[in-house]
Every structure is written in structure tokens, then in C-alpha cells.
Model the fold of this input.
Amino acid sequence: MLADKKILLIISGGIAAYKSLDLIRRLRERQVGVVPVLTRAAEEFVTPLTVSALAGVKVYRDLFDLTDEAEMGHIELSRAADLVVVAPATADLMAKMAGGHANDLATTLLMATDKPVLIAPAMNVKMWEHPATQRNLATLQADGIRVVGPAEGAMACGEFGPGRMSEVPEIIAAIEATFGHGPLSGRHVLVTSGPTHEPIDPVRYIANRSSGAQGTAIAAALRDLGARVSFITGPASVPPPAGVDVIPVETAAEMEKAVAAALPADAAIFAAAVADWRVDNAAGQKIKKRAGDVLPTLNFVENPDILATVAQMGEGRPQLVIGFAAETEEVERHATGKRARKGCDWIVANDVSPGTGIMGGTENAVTLITADGAETWPRLSKVETAARLAARIAETLA
Ligand code: C5P
Done:
């Protein structure tokens, strides 16, 4: 499937660089042309000679190498491949990428390329979990950078947790997915995300604290597995992922229409925090505050339940309909009841009570409710939660 593709492989300076040697061999077995680039720090871990010998071509190391520039300028080099892979991607390189630095060959190529970029992060668990790295990760994903891993397990530094670079077969699977060969290729999935804004008058509205982070991460994870994604988003505070069809909406009524227009789909994931009610007597003009006036009264009507409508639609129903349940108490009991009431296949339940930091935060603690019962996942970043959910969706649709 990968035969004759060309990959620009950037190796940055981490102990996981040794795995990249095997990655080069496995890619070459698949007739992939690998053009290797080493950062200065990477040369402390693997030698240019080894990398060049395995790749069967010269290795690029220096932005200011006059011979290299004469043969193939760095801009041309950044665009000559079909895909740019960064493995391992260290915390430092991720920070530079997120900040738009271009002060060595690797960062300059990453800024100049017009090709998709896949990174395989590798670092100490505390460095991975550091808010700065998580912020950079979110920025990179919002910029359309694809991410594989990191995996969880024992690390070279003796600690345990997420941070190990993904194993070579996983990286190759992720590379295949970027070329449209992922387990969800040919599938259409629909994701709702973000809050809704329900107008009171032309300048005021009722909203909620949803950031859209979890829905955005789910859309990106499904895209990374090869799916065509319709991303129907309310006014979220995080940008939508690249490489998906973005359908921006404001109100629940608009979201309902956009969902109906995006069907049919193989799976529909309703991660939006839809307002349960809207203002029935919303004013056409700004409501004025006048001394002595009686205070305005808002009358509410119920919004359409988009999830329940799709889950119960009979003909044309997506094979897999997934809802979310944001609960503040008795999460499992309430979510199990919600699954039955809505008629959906799965409920992804989370405890959003104050103090968990989940609503508007970067982490999630999920209980997945299916026909088989409840399954509690560890507290993970929203990105990792999304990757797990996307993998489960792919398994189920297979
Ligand atoms: O009933 P509740 O709002 O708790 O249900 C949450 C789930 O239902 C979420 O998946 C949400 O996206 C979906 N929902 C919807 N339309 C509504 C209300 C909720 O699709 N009007």
C-alpha cells in the first residue's frame, strides 16, 4: 500500500531514536523512499552513518550546508516527500513546532512543508504530562499535525506511564492512515461538538461552559483513522481540527438541521453540550434597560433532542450512535438510564462536578456504557480519551 511513497523522516534527539532505525528498515521493506534528517541532538543517539546506510541515501543535518543547498534547497527538500514523519518527536521539538520556530534544518523543513506531518512523541512521563507539552500538543493538533502515541509503559528513564514512542508497527499503521488506508477509510462519521448559543435578543444569549475540546479531539482521532468526518460545531473556544468538514452552527435548532443534512453516516457521535431550552420570546431588537421598567421575563421552550432523534430514526440510522452524559453525581446509574431513554448504542459518561476540572479542562475521566454494561477508563487527556474511543469505533464498524 505504501510502495513508491516518499517520506521525509525527521529524527530528533531522544533515546527512542534507536527505534527509528528499525522504522527506516521496515519502511524500506515496503518500498518506501526514506529521506532522513537528523537534529543536532539526534546525533548523540544515532550516527549519521548508520541512518544513511539504512536509508540508502544521504542524511541531511545542516541548514547551512552549502553542498546540500546547491543540490537541493531546504524548501524543495521540505516538499519533495509525500509525508513528513517526526520520530521521535521530543518535547523540545514539539514546543518549537507549536511556536513556529525555524532555527535549524528540522524546524525549518517543518515550517516550510506543504505536506501532511505525523509526529511520534517520545519523552519522560512528567514531560509528556506537563501542561506546556499538553498545550503544545493541542496547538499542533489544531494546526492539523497528526499524532501517533505516545504509548504507556516502562520507560528508559526507569519511570512508568505515557511517554514511550509508539512501536514501529503502530507508526506504520498511522502512516498508512495518513494515506487513506486507515481502518475507517471509506467511512463517514458525524461529530457534534461545543456549546450552543440560544439568543435572548440580538446581542445576548444563553450558553454553557463547554469548550469543544473533547469533540474536537474525537473528530481528529477519527480523521487519523481514515474516516471522512462531518464536524458540526457550536461556538467552541478551541479551533476545529484540520482535514475535516467543518459545519459551524450557533443554536440547537441549527445543529439539528446540520445533522440531518450531513446524514447518512456510519457512526454519529454527539459530543456537543446542547442547551436543553431556548428562549421562546427572544426579542428581535436589543432589550433596553430603562429606569422604572419591569424586569424582562424569559419564557423557555424545550430544544429538539438531536441525539434521541437520530438514535430512534429507524431507516437511515447510523450503525453506531454515541451520546455523552455530563453528570455531577451517580454517573453510572444516570448514564445507564440515559442510554435507554435516548435509544443510543453507547454513552460516554463523565463526572463534570466542580473540582474535577473536566469541564473546560484538558483531561477526562470516562465511563463507557454499552449494551454489555459499564467500563471505567482511567483519567486520561481528552486527546487520549478520543484515540481510545476512535479505536473502539473502528473495531465496532469493522
Ligand atoms: O439529556 P442530556 O443533555 O444530558 O444528554 C446529553 C447527550 O445528548 C449528549 O450526547 C448531547 O450531545 C445530546 N443532546 C442532543 N440534543 C439535545 C440535548 C442533548 O443531541 N437537545
